[in-house]
Amino acid sequence: MKEIEANPPGSSLPKDGLSYLALGDSYTIGEAVPAEASFPYQLSAGLTKQQIKTAAPTIIARTGWTTDELIAAIKQRSITQTFDIVTLLIGVNNQYRGYNINTYRAEFVQLLNTAIAYAGGNKRRVFVVSIPDWGVTPFAQGRDRTQIAREIDQYNAINKEEALKAGVSYTDITPGSRNAATDAALVATDGLHPSGKMYSEWVAKLLPGFVKTFGN
Question: N or C: which end of the chain has fewer CB within 10 A?
């Protein structure tokens, strides 16, 4: 179970700059890729290259976490500071385990409100990322890929609706994640999680919104 706390050894990101909290699961920690290749670290580096100095992210995420497990972990960490940036990507493990989708909505809203609180109540500094479709990966061979895609879409319909209702940014990376069906370079060596290349595509979609919010 991979979990990241802060700067990995050798990180070249600045020790100061915009503070960043990333909340999620394996897609946030970058399971099966180096920490620097995960989307939060690539995002921090990308912002810094855009002259928006950003510190390495603080990450609360672990492979396999569902919404309720993320909620519990946030409470356990008891972080009291606020952050300039907060990202939230959660729900794939709710779908994978067949949890009640209405429970997902309620717990996602709770996490969204927590993210807004961590951003000091500034909704412009909260960014929700959609759930990628793991059904196109080699790991899903022999499973009903059509059903997986349909359920992922249902979960994303909820997190998009609630994010927009709350007035926070929403980035849909799911269509691009489905290109992994024909581009093996988008999948990590474990045959399930995104590669650094896919995460770089996510960051390319995220950066314009961040630059608009934090640029001079």
Answer: C
Position 15 scores a pLDDT of 59
Q: What is the DSSP letter of 57?
A: P
19 with 6: CB under 8 angstroms? no
Distance CA 44, CA 83 (A): 13
Instruction: For residue range 82-127, list pLDDT tens digits in order.
Output: 999 999 999 999 999 999 999 999 999 999 999 999 999 999 999 9
Residue (of 166, 159, 155) closest to 126 by Cα position = 166
Helices (H), the chain: 26-29, 39-49, 67-77, 92-97, 101-118, 145-166, 174-177, 196-214
At 131 the pLDDT is: 98
For residues 82 and 23, give the distance between their C-alpha atoms in angstroms, rounded to a whole number: 13
Residue 58 CA to its chain's centroid (Å):
13
Give pLDDT tens digits for 130-144.
Answer: 999 999 999 999 999
29 DSSP assignment: H
User: CB of 24 within 8 A of CB of 87?
Assistant: yes
At residue 16, the pLDDT reads: 77
Of all helices (H) and strands (E), which one includes residue 22?
strand 20-24
Query: Helix axis angle, 145-166 relative to 101-118, nearest 10°?
Result: 40
The CA distance from 81 to 124, in Å, is 18
Q: Are 160 and 172 within 8 A, CB to CB?
A: yes
